[in-house]
Amino acid sequence: MSFTTDIKSELCHVPVTDETALAECLGMLLFAGQFSRESLRIQCEMPAVRHRVLQLMGRYMDLWPEEADTILQLRDPHEIARIFELYGYERESSLPLNRALVEDEQSRSAFLRGAFLIGGYVSTPEKGYHLELVTPHYHAARQLSSLLGEMELPAGYILRRGIHVLYYKDSAAIEEFLSACGATGAAMDLMLKKVEREFRNDINRKVNCETANLTKTVGAAAKQIAAIERLQESGMLDNLPENLRQTAFLRLANPEMSLTELVAAANGAISRPGLNNRLRRLVQLAEEAEK
To answer: Fewer beta carbons under 10 A from the terminal one: N or C of the chain?
Structure first.
């Protein structure tokens, strides 16, 4: 199952209460694919979500939409008019957010839950952080945006091919939204996945850094050894100062050691900068001899 499916499955198990049912149902209606005085059409891929819609509308509105595959639909204008009347908008051509239904925290949570069940999507955490709520209704999007701002959960907004989209791209904001609509388990799961992802990325960065350092060390050692061998072949090594010859033999005897390890092998007889300068001098002498 997808992460979105997991979240919606959790939300469908949140108990329905008389105090919040109409707020949740309104969230579903405002994020339905089609909602006007002529027709109501709600698309729900998940059977659990379709059952939730039927449960709410049947119990609290005495309305039973037709079910065909993933579509729930009302076509009788008289039945739809009852919905408009129920929410107090019998004279309106649209059904804006009735703020009287979302005055308390529980009702706001229910409204967000209904909106997400119908119009919500969350990307898989492994692929990034993205949550969006999609509706064809401009007023629904703008009024939900205002409500989220009041809840200190401000969302971004874009118009995508005539569809209004509210979105979050920050993991912390997504966690807060999921908690607010009742998906506390999914919010915790997202938090754990974020920690796991950051831990894995940190390990990868360290491994890459260590690999780069090792590659650099091996390359430098190979260059130094090649230079010392050229000095040996030309007979120049025997005529060098004692400190340079000692450094050359130390490097030849320990081809895989880093500078720090070489200093330790020399029993602290020379500092790391001093050893580095001597090795650099050996390479320089070998290059000058080839000119």
So the answer is: C
